[in-house]
Write a structure and sequence with these properties.
The complex is a heterodimer of chains A (419) and B (454). Chain A has 419 residues and is an alpha/beta fold. Chain A folds into four domains: 8-95, Fumarate Reductase Iron-sulfur Protein, Chain B, domain 2, CATH 1.10.1060.10; 101-152, no CATH class; 163-291, 3-Layer(aba) Sandwich (Rossmann fold), CATH 3.40.50; 306-418, Rossmann fold (3-Layer(aba) Sandwich), CATH 3.40.50. Chain A has helices at residues 8-12, 25-30, 37-48, 56-64, 70-74, 81-95, 101-113, 118-134, 136-143, 146-153, 163-166, 187-191, 193-204, 221-225, 229-242, 256-262, 265-268, 275-281, 285-291, 314-317, 324-331, 354-357, 359-376, 386-395, 404-418, and strands at residues 170-171, 178-182, 208-211, 250-253, 282-284, 306-310, 336-339, 380-382, 400-402. Chain B folds into four domains: 2-85, Uridine Diphospho-n-acetylenolpyruvylglucosamine Reductase, domain 2; 92-210, 2-Layer Sandwich (Uridine Diphospho-n-acetylenolpyruvylglucosamine Reductase, domain 3), CATH 3.30.465.10; 214-323, Alpha-Beta Plaits (2-Layer Sandwich); 329-442, Alpha-Beta Plaits, CATH 3.30.70.2740. Helix content of chain B is 36%, strand content 21%. Classes of the chains: A alpha/beta (419), B alpha+beta (454). The complex binds flavin-adenine dinucleotide (FAD) and iron/sulfur cluster (SF4) (2 copies).
């Protein structure tokens, strides 16, 4: 895939009105057009028409872009920024304008090895968990050089049990009337497997039969986002084989970043007949719950009333346009006061591996986000993407962060305790 | 010259790499493109003045730029020019509630100015569709209008003073905080709407109003565009001055609905967005009368926004009209013709007929209360034959406008896009005087050359 081969009208679709500029976090920082959606599209167009070469400077610009897709939500002209962005990154990778040996190795380790082999990913996860709880971590932290130490600190803490330990391949309650597949995700599976358990519980409590194959391929979003469409296609095909869409009423994702990619398999696999049906059945869990008119719990999740606020993950809000439903779900829960977070749909700087590739801009966005969170006075931050949780938790370890689904699951659990 | 500019502003404020320049080769106008030789970002009036002096020494033309949302090619560089971009001068310097004024730097965003005024219960009415990103400097330089023009007028009506860097690098302030002032020619008015060709505005003093206490927003749907146009004429004839009477045709409604998904009625031929504001009792009375007039002129349905949030949503949906239309085809060419309001129905019909005759797709919307229409041709610049027909259509629409006593541009300015028609509208005497004026103030033709006229 290259910019030149891309249908030119996708590039032309941008009529440079500038309406997207105020929602772009990088333009907001620098006020330079090249760091804005409109400017980046102009550069892509210039590459497509040979006005500029595919230079290191172009590659740097695409790396500086968060891929948060706030511009896509803001754009009245329906510019498909996601496709333009992924095509640009793919072309940069394919032509190798910005390679260095360590970068290659890192990409190989993560994209080729870890995120295509789910079993292997879990083994690494177990090792990391051992590393973190055994005390070796503290020792290593003392001897690592500063820069590496900072990176190392960003390694998420692994959960004691992964999703397959917590969820059976098929679970159903009394009178299940809907059959759904639950995608466990990669980071979600390793670090937040409890969220997957909670998701299953909430679905069970709402008359669903939940299918959760114990070994699931990565959805491929991380590959697509980082310029590896080939691997993304491979992962998509494997998912289609594992969970044929015709067998389910819905395919449920609970991680914003995955869901946004999962809905576009027909674009990724144009010759795959099952892809369109797959796309039509993918739902973010909150969206699905709102659709089936989720049951409101009778009791509160906590003893005391709690103040919470909700942060929109980019790929849920902008990638999937799911903004109302999580709030509706939260508002159903008794004993919870939800206050608005200002700039709730402004990127927190996590953006996949952005915190590693662009630490400064990432930090800037994170601090802005933390300021707004503090201003709400909320005791719990609710958000639905593991990347955001990791990013924010790293700087605010004292804050409780939960997925809205987990809050709901907790309330349901309290119901049965009361009985 | 680049060295001198770099020494003055610092390397981070002078861009020269091709990847940095490409995004400054266009503005919101379709089809015009040209690379500048550099882009500079001054941060004070003093720095602007010194930039001008350096460029003058090297006889390098300067294109002043705000957010680059202009719709007449005003910020498209001429060959060899530098772009002087004011987006770092964004301060709202002072709000004076006693005198109802606000002082701001030129890069302040229009919406931020009104928000700052609102904190004091005050109001800055001009609200161009681009207000979320347009700069006040750009607004003054284009004398921009907005959705509230009918009752509140345009940018010019709110400018009390401007500080300007002149083409020789001198700094002058025209106007002051006095409500009345007849000391000499009104020079500030010369700079308002001058499209960056006479001076660089580095500070503005704006007039504010008390914020209206109440507001009512309504939507009326029609089965023909003419019925909507006649409703507008009837409302004005009934001596009601609503703040907004905006018009959208079916093509525009569908595109806006596609974008906003707010449930606009997409099956009607035309829609009027009507708004009245002011004292609650007056608002109530005017709203009722407007609804009655719309009904008696064939409105299929009249709906009222339930609350402030819904009003805001409707207004922002209307603001997205132009860019929403761009969903349909790759190239969007919009017009800005304005006619005396009594000729609106005739003009609307003429546009539709012309497009049909030349087999073109057009979406028309506009500030109907001001007689200002934006017929927008949806086309593809790569299709030369179709582009020829678009230009034919534009010529016909412009001739018709002029024959009705209208103007080729109500609010977007002449820039590059409309200069071929300026003589037709103004006549020789008027145009020559304008040119003489430009030569007197800017003899070397350094500021935004070849804009408005050659
Ligand atoms: C979606 C959309 C909707 C719009 N809706 C409206 C509308 O409703 N009404 C309306 O009137 N316009 C509208 N416009 C046009 C445009 O937004 C206005 O003309 C606006 O005032 C331009 O502001 P800017 O900061 O982008 O100026 P720019 O585009 O950067 O500049 C415009 C012109 O002003 C000059 N200029 C800019 N700053 C200065 C300065 N400080 N000193 C001297 N000259 C300067 C430039 O040289 C140029 O000629 C719309 C545009 C878009 C894209
Ligand atoms: S991406 Fe959309 S909003 Fe941004 S400039 Fe292009 S058309 Fe306008
Ligand atoms: S994806 Fe985000 S950072 Fe990138 S251009 Fe769009 S708004 Fe800006």
């Amino acid at each position: 895939m290259s910019l030149k081969k891309l249908d030119f009208s996708i590039l032309q679709q941008c009529m440079h009105c500038g309406m997207c500029l105020p929602s772009c976090p990088t333009y907001d920082t620098t006020k330079r057009e090249r760091n804005s959606p409109r400017g980046r599209i102009a550069l892509m167009r210039a590459v497509a028409t040979d006005e500029i070469p595919l230079s290191q400077s172009f590659a740097d610009e695409m790396s500086f872009c968060l891929g948060c897709l706030a511009c896509q939500s803001a754009c009245p002209a329906a510019v498909d920024y996601a496709t333009l962005f992924e095509t640009s990154r793919a072309e940069i990778e394919a032509t190798g304008v910005s390679v260095s040996a360590p970068r290659r190795l890192l990409r190989f380790l993560t994209l080729d090895l870890l995120f295509t082999r789910p079993r292997f990913l879990r083994v690494v996860g177990k090792l990391l968990r051992f590393y973190q709880v055994s005390g070796a971590e503290n020792l290593v932290r003392k001897i690592l050089p500063k820069r590496l130490r900072e990176l190392e600190r960003q390694t998420p803490r692994m959960a004691a049990q992964f999703s397959n330990d917590l969820i059976d391949p098929v679970e159903s309650g009394d009178g299940s009337s809907k059959k759904v597949a639950l995608l466990t995700g990669c980071v979600q599976d390793l670090v937040f497997s409890q969220v997957n358990r909670d998701t299953a519980d909430v679905l069970l409590a709402n008359s669903c039969e939940v299918h959760t194959p114990s070994v699931q391929p990565c959805c491929g979003s991380i590959h697509s986002h980082n310029g590896e469409p080939g691997m993304a296609r491979e992962n998509a095909s494997r998912l289609l084989d594992l969970l044929p869409p015709q067998d389910f009423d819905a395919i449920i994702s609970n991680a914003g970043g995955c869901g946004s990619h999962l809905r576009h398999f027909s674009k990724l696999l144009p010759n795959e007949p099952r892809a369109a049906l797959w796309d039509a059945k993918v739902r973010d869990v909150h969206e699905f719950l709102a659709e089936i008119e989720v049951r409101s719990p009778d009791v509160a999740p906590f003893e005391e009333e709690k103040r919470v606020t909700y942060h929109d993950s980019c790929h849920l809000a902008h990638g999937q346009k799911v903004t109302l439903e999580p709030r509706q779900v939260i508002d159903l829960i008794p004993g919870i006061e939800r206050v608005d977070l200002s700039e709730s749909d402004w990127c927190c700087g996590s953006a996949g591996v952005y915190s590693l590739t662009q630490p400064e801009q990432s930090q800037l966005l994170l601090e802005r986000k933390l300021g707004h969170i503090r201003a709400t006075g909320a005791e719990i931050l609710l958000t639905a993407n593991p990347g955001c949780v990791l990013q924010i938790q790293n700087e605010m370890p004292e804050l409780k962060i939960m997925n809205p689904v987990s809050l709901l699951a907790q309330a349901y659990r309290n119901e049965s305790k009361k009985l | 010259m680049i060295d001198a500019l770099t020494a003055l502003l610092g390397a981070e404020n002078v861009l020269t790499a091709k990847e940095d320049l490409v995004p400054y080769s266009f503005d919101g106008t379709a089809t015009f493109r040209e690379l500048p030789v550099a882009v500079v970002f001054p941060r004070t009036t003093e720095e602007v003045a010194r930039c001008v002096k350096i460029c003058r020494e090297h006889q390098t033309p300067i294109i002043t730029r705000g957010s680059g949302t202009g719709l007449s090619g005003g910020t498209v560089p001429t060959p060899g020019a530098i772009v002087l971009c004011l987006v770092h001068m964004t301060k709202i310097v002072e709000i004076d509630p006693a005198n109802l004024t606000l002082r701001a730097e030129p890069g302040a965003i229009t919406a931020d100015i009104d928000a700052a005024a609102a904190e004091h219960g005050l109001f800055y009415p001009p609200d161009p569709g681009s207000m979320k990103i347009s700069t006040i400097g750009g607004n003054v330089a284009e004398n921009s209008g907005g959705l509230r023009g009918l009752k509140y007028g345009v940018t010019r009506d709110y400018v009390m003073a401007v500080t300007v860097v002149l083409p020789d690098g001198e700094v002058a302030t025209f106007g002051n905080a006095c409500v009345k002032d007849v000391a000499g020619y009104s020079m500030k008015d010369v700079f308002i709407g001058s499209e960056g060709t006479l001076g660089i505005i580095t500070e503005v003093l704006l007039k504010l109003l008390p914020r209206p206490e109440a507001r009512r927003t309504m939507l009326a749907t029609f089965s023909s565009m003419e019925a909507a146009a006649e409703t507008v004429s009837a409302i004005i004839a009934a001596r009601i001055i609503p703040c907004t009477l905006e018009f959208l045709d079916q093509m525009t409604i569908r595109c806006v609905e596609d974008y906003t998904k707010m449930g606009l009625p997409t099956d009607c031929a035309a829609l009027l967005l009507m708004e009245t504001d002011g004292h609650p009792a007056a608002v109530e009375d005017e709203a009722n009368r407007m609804a009655a007039i719309a009904r008696s002129h064939g409105a299929m349905e009249v709906m009222t926004a339930a609350d402030e949030a819904e009003s805001l949503k409707l207004a922002s949906a209307r603001r997205s009209a132009f860019a929403s239309l761009a969903r349909v085809r790759p190239t969007t060419i919009l017009e800005d013709v304005t006619v005396p309001r009594s000729h609106l129905a005739e003009m609307v019909t003429f546009i539709a007929e012309t497009a049909a005759k030349l087999e073109l797709t057009v979406g028309t919307f506009g500030h109907m209360g001001d007689g200002n229409l934006h017929p927008t041709f949806l086309t593809d610049e790569r299709d030369e034959e179709e582009m020829k027909r678009v230009h034919q259509a534009l010529d016909l629409i412009v001739s018709k406008t002029l024959s009705l006593g209208g103007t080729i541009t109500g609010e977007h300015g002449v820039g590059l896009a409309k200069k071929m028609w300026l003589r037709d509208q103004l006549g020789d005497a008027s145009l020559n005087l304008m040119k003489k004026f430009k030569e007197t103030i800017d003899p070397d033709c350094l500021l935004n050359p070849h804009k408005i006229f050659d």
